[in-house]
């Protein structure tokens, strides 16, 4: 696939008023989500839940793509239609999570490295054949006493760059996600400093690995106070700090930036995105790639009756997509 085609896909992922729904939870993660609302963690329940999300009526009006898990990209609806076909028929671009999760970074207590590069080229070719058009790799940066280290940041940036280069070789748009966690009692200034260093390291690594930024999407965390910080930054402060940090680190040639919710409430994640777009125009489209912030309310509704509450849960999914789509335009009224 040419860089022009990759760039076309990347631009479609951040089309005006549209964002990405992340339904790429591992089986272990979704087991915790199901347990929290009393749903048995069976393969059929996981399939039915993903079908509920992906077949939400008119979802394509506000959702440009969906990130899937390995199990999900191979699954079909109850009627036997592959999920990837359902998505494409509704204008939703299939994506796939390809990293193998975080593991302790040897020699650096409290820090982690994302693994999954071994065999990645062959896995990417298979996912492309299954219908994926973009992929996602998540790195995790913890803030704490004397961390993050430069070694941890650079090691994760290097892995993200190697992954991104392999994606483009296989005709997939890489979504690079260097998440600076909200966990901790750090203030917003500390988050800014860590996020800035992380993004500088990432884009340096992408350049060194000949990754074409025109065909790449950044999935970013917002510059925000730690969950345990006594002084929580306002919506306006989060929006201004995040934008200033991005403008000082992210090249304007990038087709777009989508934000992760990172444990924020549904309301906060939408309000922050809306405020950033109201401060525009910005060098790139700013949209969303939310998981829990798109799903949590619908999951609770569905858990009360797995047979009869599908339509009601889908109404909530659509409402969250609509609200965040408006926020991506700076038009959300609350």
Protein described:
With 334 residues, this protein is an alpha/beta fold. The protein has a single domain (3-327), classed as Aldolase class I (TIM Barrel), CATH 3.20.20. The protein has helices at 3-13, 27-37, 43-54, 70-73, 83-89, 120-130, 150-169, 188-208, 235-247, 266-278, 292-303, 310-327; strands at residues 19-23, 63-68, 93-97, 102-104, 112-114, 134-141, 173-180, 217-220, 257-259, 286-290. It has an eight-stranded parallel β-barrel, surrounded by nine helices. β9 (257-259), α10 (266-278) and β10 (286-290) form a beta-alpha-beta unit. α7 crosses α8 (188-208), α10 (266-278) runs parallel beside α12 (310-327) and α11 (292-303) packs antiparallel against α12 (310-327). The radius of gyration is 19 Å and the shape is globular. It starts with a helix and ends in a 7-residue tail after the last helix. The mean pLDDT is 97.
Question: How is the secondary structure organized here?
Answer:
Layout: H1 3-13, E1 19-23, H2 27-37, H3 43-54, E2 63-68, H4 70-73, H5 83-89, E3 93-97, E4 102-104, E5 112-114, H6 120-130, E6 134-141, H7 150-169, E7 173-180, H8 188-208, E8 217-220, H9 235-247, E9 257-259, H10 266-278, E10 286-290, H11 292-303, H12 310-327
Parallel strand pairs: 1-2, 1-10, 2-3, 3-6, 6-7, 7-8, 8-9, 9-10
Antiparallel strand pairs: 4-5
Helix pairs in contact: 7-8, 8-9, 9-10, 10-12, 11-12
Summed up, what is this model?
The protein has 334 residues and is an alpha/beta fold. It is built from twelve helices and ten strands. 46% of the residues lie in helices and 15% in strands.
């Amino acid at each position: 696939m040419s860089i022009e085609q990759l760039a076309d896909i990347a631009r479609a992922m951040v089309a005006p008023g549209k964002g990405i729904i992340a339904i790429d939870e591992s089986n272990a993660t979704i087991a915790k989500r199901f347990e929290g609302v009393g749903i048995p963690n069976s393969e059929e329940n996981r399939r039915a839940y993903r079908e509920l999300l992906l077949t939400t009526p008119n979802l394509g009006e506000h959702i440009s793509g969906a990130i899937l898990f390995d199990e999900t990209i191979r699954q079909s609806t109850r009627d036997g239609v592959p999920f990837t076909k359902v998505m494409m028929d509704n204008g939703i671009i299939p994506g796939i999570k390809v990293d193998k999760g975080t593991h302790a970074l040897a020699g650096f207590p409290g820090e982690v490295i994302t693994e999954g590069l071994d065999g990645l080229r062959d896995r990417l070719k298979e996912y492309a054949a299954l219908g994926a058009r973009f992929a996602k790799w998540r790195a995790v940066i913890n803030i704490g006493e004397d961390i993050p280290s430069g070694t941890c940041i650079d090691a994760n940036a290097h892995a993200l760059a190697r992954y991104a280069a392999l994606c483009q070789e296989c005709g997939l748009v890489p979504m690079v996600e260097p998440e600076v966690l909200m966990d901790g009692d750090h203030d917003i200034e500390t988050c800014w400093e860590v996020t800035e260093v992380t993004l500088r390291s990432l884009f340096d690594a992408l350049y060194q690995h000949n990754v074409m930024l025109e065909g790449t999407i950044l999935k970013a965390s917002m510059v925000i106070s730690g969950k345990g910080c006594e002084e929580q930054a306002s919506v306006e402060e989060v929006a201004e700090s995040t934008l200033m940090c991005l403008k000082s680190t992210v090249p304007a040639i990038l087709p777009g930036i989508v934000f992760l919710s990172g444990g924020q409430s549904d309301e906060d994640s939408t309000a922050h995105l809306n405020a950033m777009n109201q401060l525009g125009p910005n060098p790139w489209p700013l949209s969303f790639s939310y998981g829990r912030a798109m799903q949590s309310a619908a999951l609770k509704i569905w858990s009360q009756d797995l047979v009869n509450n599908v339509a009601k849960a889908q109404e909530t999914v659509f409402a969250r997509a609509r609200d965040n789509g408006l926020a991506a335009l700076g038009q959300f009224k609350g």
